[in-house]
Write a structure and sequence with these properties.
6 strands, Aspartate Aminotransferase, domain 1, globular, 124 residues, alpha+beta
């Protein structure tokens, strides 16, 4: 990736090799399909989606994996399904040498949407 801080997701993705760009675009498209009303942004220097002014999910490209961040609790509900991946608090690493689990990304993103909508409804 380039050292200049990207101002949008297109710039961020453009800083990667073509094969990684294609995977990042798949992840982006998957999230957009599940959350068409979410706003794209760059936060902490990586792509993120916000829904109702709340961070939905982040993702990022690395040399050997795609980082996916369904913070703060999106990964906990999928602990068993994520057990085959390297995980951390609020993060999961999907290796670039394996098919991207787009169905799992879809379900985690849907889960986060439900959390945000529930939280928003309680505030009203």
């Amino acid at each position: 990736m380039t050292t200049a801080k990207p101002s949008n997701i297109d710039e961020y993705i453009a800083g990667f090799p073509k094969e990684v760009q294609a995977i990042l675009e798949q992840v982006r498209a998957t999230i957009k399909q599940v959350a068409p009303d979410a706003e794209e942004a760059i936060s902490y220097g990586i792509p993120t989606f916000r829904l109702h002014k709340t961070y939905l999910v982040y993702f990022a490209g690395f040399k050997n994996h795609i980082g996916f961040y369904p913070t703060p609790t999106g990964g906990e509900a999928f602990k068993e399904e994520l057990s085959g991946y390297k995980t951390g608090k609020g993060s999961v690493q999907f290796p670039l040498d394996k098919p991207m689990p787009l169905d799992l990304i879809t379900r985690i993103t849907q889960f986060r949407i439900e959390q945000i909508l529930e939280k928003t409804a309680k505030k009203k």
